[in-house]
What does this fold into?
Amino acid sequence: FRSASVSVIVLGASGDLAKKKTLPALYGLFLRGLLPAEAAVVGYARSDLSRADFHDRISPNLEKVDGSSDDSLAVFLGQCHYVSGQYDSSEDFAALHDELIRLEDEAGASESGEAHRLFYLALPPKVFASVSATFEPVAMSQRGWNRVVVEKPFGRDLASSNELVAALAETFTEDQQFRIDHYLGKEAALNMVVFRFANLTFQPLWNRNYISTVEITFKEPFGTEGRGGYFDEIGIVRDVMQNHLLQLLALTAMERPISLSAEDVRDEKVKVLRCIEPLTLDDILIGQYVANEETGKPGYTDDDGVPDDSRCATFATAAFNIRNERWDGVPFIIRCGKALNERKANIRIQLRDTPGQLFGDAARNELVFRIQPSEAIYLKVMAKKPGLGDELVQTELDLTYHSRFPCETIPDAYERLLYDVLRGDRSHFVRADELEAAWRIFDDVLHKLDDGAVEPLPYVYGSRGPDAADDFVAARGYVRSGDY
Ligand code: BG6
It folds into this structure.
């Protein structure tokens, strides 16, 4: 795509997602020299803004991007345009098309005959289908590819997700659609496939004979803070477990793909997701944060728009069983929550006890992928404590990215994924059958939780979550160690 003209059209350009994620990611690509100088970034939204107003609105978030300078920002803004229009108006989208033709021709498309368009739908999913059906007939490039990026939530259960997929399929082919799950673009998550399949070391151990439990953790140190009205409709299971964390699980558990082609990789993910038994209420524990008297942090129901009697989960721990030859009986535990004690996302693969225990109760080996903050892969091992004594100590073989790869800046997940869309690489995007397999696991339990079948356990804002969650995890065989 680098030699041809490309336009990135951000629909919903004045919204939060565009301002905080999409546009800074495009700027990040520009700073790395990966967004061609001929590329136009065209914001589209209802607000009647001048181009200068648009630049003023997006600049504060762009200035924060690593490596930004006044000069580079000025050049990038020179590539950023704005068109205002309604989302239900064919005429407005036709005017967008005319503006795109003008920009593409200016960038040399009339000579090369090539012009590609990437439409980023930074819009609420409920309007995806209708907006797409309005712009598709009038605003697509006739001189190159057209690709469409959409963001979760894709529906709120299996049926509504299938409906959304079917509605979009009336307008776009599966190949034109890129369903983003930004956890698939995180550097340490991308390393899972490399680490597993480019090294022999762990391959013989990667199964139920040697692995006792796998735990995937996601913690955020802030609550819903004003987004409560929105969050109450969703809950933590739909917000991060059914998508981001289940994707991490699939990467950890899938079989070796036949090749690295997008279809082969996604075939394996679908296969392993289909082996997961649907969750029941016994497999999940939910919590909801309450005010912290000491720090003055509010409880979930103190947030505007959250009903006082809400049973919405802001914390959940669930145990999954993968019924296949490799994993049957190994609990895969996902634990996630808002308003906890720290920001952390990691995958912990805990091995079984060493047979025979020559050294008494040596701690188990554990391989940890730290997704954030500070990306790392480390293996917790036992070693002899140096000195004249015979004591053992638990220590780590450590691949912390910032010390091992000091010169590399780690791209933001959105940057990586937008680069993939521009290159046409679908490997790290969610295919329709994958989405269906993921919803199938949660459908029944989510309906029961929506009906208020379970009262969430309270936990204090800033704590580790409900105490019962530790018991839940311990009961499934996970042994806590130092930095857990
Ligand atoms: C989003 C969720 O998808 O992911 C948010 O809707 C959550 O609630 C966010 O905060 C977490 O992403 P990251 O990249 O900050 O870990």
Residues 182, 220, 239-240 surround 6-O-phosphono-beta-D-glucopyranose (CB under 6 Å). The first strand starts at residue 5 and ends at 11. The first helix runs from residue 16 to 31. The two ends are 44 Å apart (CA to CA).
